[in-house]
Design goal:
Layout lengths: L1 E5 L6 H13 L4 E4 L16 H10 L5 E7 L6 H14 L4 E5 L17 H20 L3 E4 L4 E5 L13 E4 L3 H10 L2 E4 L7 H18 L7 E5 L10 H13 L4 E5 L11 H15 L1
Parallel strand pairs: 1-2, 1-10, 2-3, 3-4, 4-7, 7-8, 8-9, 9-10
Antiparallel strand pairs: 5-6
Helix pairs in contact: 2-3, 3-4, 4-5, 7-8
Length: about 280
């Protein structure tokens, strides 16, 4: 099992820097930040840019993998995103993962326009991921699609990680799961929304089985579970051990929690984080 932590992009860098450094010192395998323009319930909180945050994090760390949780077509174009990916991959010396999903939350409408249907969102995601894959591996791309266009889009100098950076794909439905297995190096899920932990984990189990149904038998494929959708996993040592054990039983290779916040969503204690990271995680690897 590998362990990750998400640090929301809400802190001034004078405060955030120590968190990213500490995540590496504590031995986390990967660290993430949200790739959203804002987040439900935190619209009145400070919020900083994803690419700039990860760039700064790359410069103050040396071993931990860094990723977006998760990038979507809601406000990104594959060509401009390609440039950001190339830079992050280079600055981090090949430590960047690109989490990708169809997009949800306030980002769907914050720039104006109507919210897409579920089918349209998957249509757009399919075009987005396919074009992004092409842009990261092919130089001089002309594309005219329903949602995106490029004209002689250059890809130089190419990724440090070859043939391109890994995509970790968020998916729930049959089409998006098939898309994940086509383009992804791994799959990430938050489960289906529920305030009840057992109901939530039942959805995680069902989604994991859906992936099994579309994944080629025997193919290596990483599975990431975001732990904190129904119950904050760092609320106690017992809560963390319980959910990680359940994830391991389902075949998850990676789990992701959130850095404790002072109040509100993901509110918790940094002392508990330290205890889990130094005493529990080494035992669960």
């Amino acid at each position: 099992m590998r362990f990750g932590i998400t640090i929301l992009p809400e802190y001034r860098w004078s405060e955030a820097e120590s968190k990213w450094r500490r995540a590496e010192e504590l031995g986390f395998d990967h660290a993430w930040t949200y790739d959203h323009l804002t987040w439900h319930g935190l619209q009145d909180s400070p919020w900083y840019g994803t690419t700039q945050t990860l760039t700064a994090a790359a410069l103050v760390t040396s071993t931990i993998t860094l990723g977006t949780f998760v990038t979507s077509p809601n406000f990104r174009h594959p060509l401009t995103l390609t440039r950001e990916i190339l830079a992050l991959d280079d600055i981090s010396q090949g430590r960047f993962l690109c989490g990708i999903g169809s997009g949800g939350g306030i980002d769907q409408t914050i720039l104006g326009g109507d919210e897409l249907t579920a089918r349209q969102k998957v249509d757009r995601l399919e075009e987005f991921v396919g074009l992004l894959d092409t842009l990261l591996t092919t130089d001089g791309v002309d594309h005219q699609g329903e949602y995106f266009e490029t004209r002689n889009a250059r890809t130089l100098p190419g990724c440090v990680q070859q043939p391109r950076v890994p995509f970790i794909m968020a998916a729930n439905g049959p089409r998006s799961l098939r898309l994940a297995t086509r383009y992804g190096a791994g799959w990430v899920t938050t489960g289906l929304k529920s305030a009840d932990f057992e109901t939530w984990f039942s959805s995680v189990r069902d989604l994991s089985h859906r992936l099994d149904d579309v994944l080629e038998e025997g193919r290596p494929f990483d599975r990431y579970l975001a732990l904190d959708s129904a119950r904050y996993s760092l609320s106690s040592v017992d809560a963390f051990e319980d959910v990680v054990g359940r994830a391991a039983d389902l075949g998850f290779t990676d789990v992701i929690t959130h850095w404790p916040r002072a109040e509100g969503v993901y509110a918790g204690s940094e002392d508990t984080l330290e205890q889990i990271a130094t005493e529990v995680i080494p035992r669960l690897r």
